[in-house]
Amino acid sequence: MNDHRDNIGPDADRTEGSVKKMGGNLKEGIGAVLGDEKMKREGQADQAEGKLQNAWGGAKDAVRETFGDKK
């Protein structure tokens, strides 16, 4: 059986969220090393935003898998 969902990758929000979270982690680390509290907090905020975006993409993927909708 050829399922149309086989060729669909993860939602773009999952990918973008993961990248944003990794960037935030890096930014937080640099801020910590440099003693820059503002940069450190920005990195933490970026990580939280990335985590939420990734979760939103995961929810969209779950709905798509459940209902067989491409997008």
What can you tell me about this protein's structure?
Helix content is 76%, strand content 0%. By secondary structure, the chain is mostly helical.
Describe the secondary-structure layout.
Blueprint: H1 12-34, H2 37-67
What fraction, in percent, of the residue positions are helical? over 70%
Amino-to-carboxy terminus distance: 21 Å
Q: How many individual helices?
A: 2
The gyration radius over C-alpha positions equals: 16 Å
The chain-level structural class is mainly alpha
Mean pLDDT: 88
Main β sheet profile: none
| Total number of beta strands | 0
List unreliable stretches of 5+ residues. 1-5
Q: What percentage of the residues does DSSP assign to strands (E)?
A: under 5%
Shape: rod-shaped
Topology order in helix (H) and strand (E) letters: HH
Briefly say what this structure is.
The protein is mainly α and 71 residues long.
Task: Pick out its properties.
single chain; 71 residues; mainly alpha; 2 helices; 76% helix; 0% strand; disordered N terminus
